[in-house]
Amino acid sequence: MSATFAAVLLAGGTAACGEGAESDSAHEGPAQVTPRTAVAKAATDSEGITSLRYRVTGTVPQTGRLEAEASMSTEPPVMSMRMTTAEHGEDGRLEVRFVDEVMYAGGSAVDSGKLDGKSWFSAGPAVWGRGAADNNSYRVLPSQMEGSPAVQSRILTASKDVRKIGTETVDGTRTTHYRGTVTGRGISAARDAATTKAARERQIASLDQFVALRIDDRLTMDLWIDEAGRTRQFRMRGDTRATRGGTEGKPLEFIDGDPLDMTVTFLDVNQPVTVETPPSEDTADIAALADKAQSTGE
Fold this sequence. Notes:
By secondary structure, the protein is of the alpha+beta class. Helix content is 19%, strand content 35%.
C-alpha cells in the first residue's frame, strides 16, 4: 500500500499499475586505440567513481519527458535529485533525497494538501542504486533513475559494432563520440563484466533496471569520452516491451511499450557530496499518512 499511497501524494500523479561494422579508425591523439579499446578503458575508469553530480534529459517508459539534476555517493550511499516531468507539468518540480535508507520527497509536484500542511513526506525502508528487485523508491522515481549512471555508462562495452562517430564538445570539453548497439543479452553480459567484486555488485545492481525493461530487439547507445579517456556523457535509445493480462484468467501477453531515449551528462566526478534530511517538523511520515487515510476512508 505504501508505494501506491506515495504515488497518490504526487500532485497530478497516478499509481501506474546498431549501426555499421566496427571501425579500425583510431582514437585521435598520441596513443592510437580502437573504438572498442577506448570504450573499455572508459568503462574501467568508471569503476573508480564513488560520487557523481549529473544531469538527465529525455523520455523514459511510463513517465514520458523529464529533466533532472542529481548528486550521488556510494560511501555512504546517498542521493539527491531535482526533477521535472511531463506528468507534473512545467511547474511541477519534484525533489527526492535518499539518506540512511529513508526517502524524502518534496516540491511543487507533491500534493501538500495531503501532508497536513508539511512540505515533505518520508518513506522507509527506501533503497536506491541496487538491483531492480531490491530498489524501493515507492514508485516516485522512474526505474531507469534508480541506478548509478557511472555503472550504466558501461553498457556499450557489450556492443559488437561500436564505431567512432566524430569529435564533439560536451559542456565545453572536447570529446570523441562513439556509437554501438546492444541486445538484451548483451546488457546482461555487461552487467557481469566488471573487474572487481565490488564493481561487479554495482554493475548487477544498476543494469538490472535495463534488463527488466525488456528492450525490443536492441538498444542504441552513444558514448562521449574526453581526452583523458573518461566518460563525459552517454545516451540510450530503444523500444521496449510491456505486458498485459496474466490475471483473472487472461493470458499474459507482450505488447509494445513506451520508448526509451535518455541522455546522462557527467558534471562533477569524485567530489564531496552531502545530502541532508529535511527538517523533521516539516516532514510527514508516509505510514502515518496512509493509516490516517485508511481510518477516515479518504
